[in-house]
Write a structure and sequence with these properties.
75% helix, CMD-like
């Protein structure tokens, strides 16, 4: 819930490696808000954005 940024990055990279699409990853993180709280979900989205930028993955709007 906000203290596992390095691990979250690894899992997002792994999800992309096995074929998950960025919108699917974003949706899972948004669902996290119900269980972990809105601040944790926002932190997760920021981590996802970093990973997408590192990999040059475009996220549709």
């Amino acid at each position: 819930m906000g203290t596992a940024t390095p691990q979250l990055k690894v899992h997002i990279h792994g999800a992309l490696n096995v074929g998950c699409q960025p919108p699917e990853i974003i949706e899972v993180i948004l669902q996290m808000a119900v269980y972990a709280g809105f601040p944790a979900a926002i932190n997760g989205l920021n981590v996802a954005r970093e990973v997408f930028q590192e990999r040059g993955v475009a996220v549709g709007t």
